[in-house]
Amino acid sequence: MVSREAFYRNVVHSLRNGVLAIWHDGSIAEINDAACRILGLHADPGHIGRAFDEVLGKNHELSDVLSLAFTDAELPNRAELRLRTSGKVIGYTLSPIAEPDGTVSGAVLLFKDLTRIEQLEERERLRDRLAALGEMAAAIAHEVKNPLASIQVMAGLLKRQLPHSPDANELLSDIINEAKMANRIVVQVLEFVRPISLQVEPVSVTAVLDEAVAAFRSRPGNGHMTIVTNCAADLPDLHADPLQLRQLFNNLLTNAMEAQPGKGHIWITVHYTAVEESPEPTEPPDYAGYVTVEVADDGPGIRADVIDQLFNPFFTTKPSGSGLGLAIVRKIVNAHDGRIDVKSRAGGGASFGVRLPVPHQVVDTMTAGDDSAGGGSHV
Ligand SMILES: Nc1ncnc2c1ncn2[C@@H]1O[C@H](COP(=O)(O)OP(=O)(O)O)[C@@H](O)[C@H]1O
Ligand SMILES: [Mg+2]
User: Fold this and answer.
1) Are residues 101 and 147 in the same domain?
2) What is the pTM assigned to this prediction?
3) How does pLDDT run across 9-57, given as a tens digit for each residue?
4) Are 83 and 61 in contact (CB under 8 A)?
5) Which domain holds residue 15?
6) 198 Cα: distance to centroid of ligand 2 (angstroms)
7) Which domain CATH number covers 121?
8) Percent of the chain with pLDDT over 90
């Protein structure tokens, strides 16, 4: 039989929510493993007895919350905040710890990592927005497609009828090019608003990348790009829609090329991270791990003030851009329950990292003897 005190201690340490209790003087009375995990601290018995702001670090958001404990302020209940350093969103409640006679001897902060819930809600909001926007955009795009095609055809016919009039020919070529560009935008709008229904199958990410790169290279004007691919060996297959992935990689490659027209390099690296090694151990282990594909270029990079808007539909800094390339990328990544992040390096160059989940059964079959996955590095 365990003692009552040991039992209560076990309760606190087994909770999946973070618990951080302090004495009236600000020293830590209890901090459980979940709290350490969420806050990125080592689970160390040495935390007990130390001042909370010393353990959490100066200017920590939770230090501000804990300092409210013994003031007259109303204590936060079911509040939320974002941790600056890790970007995690946590939901928390701060309660006073009262003795039977009513004196307050300490305070306890209960908290939970809401990052995952926050992400799902954000996706939900995005889906709702797209559904409304999509119906209208699809209707308009559909109506515009036919007249655009007619303009192209008729301008082409007229061009043939005026072989000896270079001025008229030039104008007609301009009309055709403009109509083509408008058509490209319409096609992208339709692609963007169409709800994704994934045709999921086991997919080798290396094979899909090779196809996407080959298709990209074969398009006029892309031959000059130097594309360096570096794939880790023994990558597990994804459960994914290969056509959607090709589209995703194509959009990233196109942007990398457009960032450095007429020259430049694109580096593609692929690696696998098992969930145990993931930097975010609080994430539920729905998957065995993640394959991360990084597409980097040595263009001018991305201005810090626009980085938050990149994935918004219709955000573009290009004179004839549609602003849908990255919105489509995000839609595809979300549909695969993946993640995308973007880095812009100080010395120029942008890098997009796409993280796609690998289900448990794929990795289980691999470790059971199949080591046929390709790898290596090629230019
Ligand atoms: N590799 C990159 N380097 C620099 N800027 C980029 C890169 N990729 C995307 N961007 C920025 O993000 C914007 C949105 O991209 P996207 O959604 O593909 O639309 P579009 O390419 O039509 O402008 C671009 O206009 C550009 O400003
Ligand atoms: Mg683009």
Assistant:
1) no
2) 0.66
3) 899 989 989 999 999 999 999 999 999 999 999 999 999 999 999 999 8
4) yes
5) 4-113
6) 22
7) 1.10.287
8) 58
154 and 103 in a common domain? no
Q: Which amino acid is at 250?
A: N
Q: Determine the 3-state secondary structure of 167 from DSSP.
A: helix
Domain shared by 127 and 83, yes or no: no
- The neighbour count for residue 95, using CB atoms within 10 Å, is 15
Of the candidates 267, 265, 326, the one whose C-alpha atom is nearest the C-alpha of residue 295 is 267
Ligand nearest to the CA of residue 264, numbered in listed order: 1
Strand 201-203 relative to strand 238-240: parallel, antiparallel, unpaired?
antiparallel
- DSSP strand pairing (201-203 vs 104-113): unpaired
The ligand 1 site (C-beta within 6 Å) comprises 251, 255-256, 259, 297, 299, 302, 310, 315-318, 321-327, 350
CATH number, residue 20 = 3.30.450.20
Handedness of CA 207, 210, 216, 218 (dihedral sign): negative
Examine the fold and report which residue of 113, 145, 177 is the final residue of a domain before the chain moves on: 113
| Residue showing tokens 């120029």 | 348
